[in-house]
Automatic annotation (TrEMBL), chain A:
This is Chemotaxis protein CheW. Pfam families: CheW (PF01584). Residues 1-139 form the CheW-like domain. InterPro entries: CheW, CheW-like_dom_sf, CheW-lke_dom. It comes from the Bacteria.
Amino acid sequence: MALFLIAQIAGRPVAIESSQVESVVDIGSIIPVPRAERQVRGLAALRSRVVTVIDTRAALGLEAAEVDAGRAIITIVEGHYYAILVDALDDVAPFDLTPLSAGILLDKGWLKVGRGIVERDGEPILAIALDGLIPGALALAA
Amino acid sequence: MDDLLQEFIAETRETLEALSGEIVAWESAPDDRDRLDAIFRFVHTVKGSCGFLDLPRLARLSHAAEDVLAAVRSGERAPDTRLVNAVLAIVDRIGEIVEAIDAGHALDDSGEDLLIAALDTGAEMAAPQAVSAPRSPSRSVRLNVDLLDRMMSGMSDMVLARNELARRVRDGGADPVVEAALERLSLTVAEMRDTVTRTRMQKIDALFSALPRMVRDTATELGKSVTLHIEGSDVELDREMIEMMRDPLVHIIRNSIDHGIEAPALRRALGKRENGWLNVAARQSGNQIVIEISDDGQGVDTDRLVTKVASAGLRSDAQLRGMSEQAKLDLIFEPGLSTKDMATAISGRGVGMDVVRANVEQIGGRIELHNAPGKGLRIAIHVPLTLSIMSTIGVGVRDQRFAISRQVIEEIVRVGGDMIRIDRIGDTLSATVRDRRMPLIDLGDLLGFGQRSPVMLAIVSASGGSYALAVDSVLDHEELVIKPAAPAIMATGVYAGQTLPDSGLPMLMLDCAGIAHVAGLVFGREAMVEEIEAEAVVPGVQALLFDDLDGVRRVLPLSVIDRVEPVSASAIRFSAGRLRLSVEGGIIPLVALGEWAPQSTVSVVRLRDGSVEIGYAIGEAIDIVELPETVVPAHDAGPIAGVVAIDGDQIEVIDLHWLFASHADAGTVSDAPLCLFDGPETAWMTTFLKPVLEGAGYRVATMLRPGETPRVVVRMSDDPTGSAATVPVVRLRRDADGDDGSIFRYDRPALLAAVARSTGGR
């Protein structure tokens, strides 16, 4: 059993394995990065570090939210700090990761981040990999 | 130097402490490979450090131990108890010596030969000695860079907290007492920040200061003499970066002295100064620090390199044949390759340029080689500015701030007034600043903020040209620590990195060369032509600067100098109507423009033009200089062709033609085919081409004497055609590219071939 963080992204619950999570923070002012892809919401200061803020909805190919999400999960990919914006954080608990049931096909951006399913009180929750949300990281890995 | 020694002592002491456990373990289990490796690394490190710290005793001990351990590692010797004891005795001895160095008292070196002898197979058992030397308290602390990182990040947090506090105090109405306290806090925080920043930053001098000694020692060991020049010692680099650069730099310099610079006798014969020349320079270039190591040695013999690679079976023959010159040169980085056939004490054991390149690439840098066979090798190490402190100017676009490296900004001007015009040429913006027209990029438009009429212009230079960058405002100057941004941000091509200034808000640093590229500006051609000229000029114009016998400073083109040598004054005689010099197996004419008799030995420059040889007595050779293109001709024909300006001095240029025409034994020169230089560029041709053509056996003139007919006329391709249509014409062009039947003026073989064709094949 691994420890998972349950968060809300675009109104849906998702599970994130805790090994990917560096910390969970409130994001203050975000400085935009002109000419960058839409997923890059901008830069923010996290203590003395500059983090790249990822607009999770944009990265998943969803509509923009009406209100900017204020919380973020900090993750480190290839030495760079990223803040993944989330709507809310629900819970931290150990779960068993099971593969996606046969026949279930993820769409849009979910396809590239989905890793399996955890079950909370009978409710299946999609487990995601945060590095799938980072633009440029996948291309480098390929 | 003392710093380095302290560092060495601290490091050795620390490793020894950590090693003591390993040593005991190795003693009980001599076959344990990990323990063996740990001890090998230790003696290897000590050996390396001793090389440039000048600690011969330690070097000898560690070298001996390393040899034995290497033999054990390769399986040539078995680690029996006797061997283990002998190695341990040496490790103990190293510890004692290090303590003695630190405490500053002498340590008797008797018994060290015994220790080394004990390493030999079949030697007597060495008795381990008790460590007795007193320890002095350490004056320095070695810190982990992670700790410095944490300190730095804590410091930045403190600055942000202070800013927050200041804001609150301002908003809540100021109590003067609180404000004064805050003021004091601010000062302290600022001072602390400086200090903490400095703990990570170091002048590159920390890297360079050990070089003079190292170069001297390495050169002495090899029986060479090398003059070292160091430039840019005050460039600042991240401490960690400096540490990473240390080994590659040392290795490259040793290579340079070992393989590059020739032995003095050979250099003399080649007409080079006996002292090899080694230049180590650091400078900041855009977003990088460039460390350049250049020497005037023999360069890299790529043919030999290729043979070597082929014989080592590292590449196939077909692969090697298809390689460009540069690719062949890059073979030097091939793993497992040593261009010297034997590993010397200098070049070390199995560490090659491949390791150097790997080290440099590990910190995100790259290595460039510029090879001039026979003339030298220049190695440029480019290290990213990552983590380096940069001097920046803040610019504002709408309500966002960006940083620009101060180094690329030529000037900042406000739009308005007579000096500055902004025009639209087609759809392209251009700015004219004091009669200088340049492209203009509207930063706001480029970054997608929309167009607005320019207010301030920052004139920046990037990739070979300058352009004006329109911004809304120019803010302040700040020293910032620039770090690389995430790949998705770097992919835009307009940013050099990100930073966190005092405001507590992240800021992006603009990459001015990248902006020019994204905006589609091309300065390429101009830059390329400059480069070609710079490269091509070098070979033609080297000249020997010397003090002549009459005290006047003069130059002689290097291309005709066979060698410079001291001769006994008794070898010079005035005989058969002229001055002559006895040389090995013959007599050659000698030219002396002053008194040579009072001296017992005279330096003579041996000049050779084809088969004709003459001597020229000089006072003293000074330097090899580059001959300027402009030669002011002398008033009358004579030994002096004209005057050039070198470093602000007027220097007379010897007229080689006159020298050979009036002093050489007659017969060979006058019947040579005559080549006429024509057109407005004759001065250039005289400086550059004359030695080339005369060397190939032609007579060269810029004006015809009555009754003379040239066999060939040389002129520039864009000169108006002269009247002499009956004589074949060789036309020269300025650019390397072009195929209008003319010849690139620096293409020596093609030029000679064309002249030979025109004069009827010679």
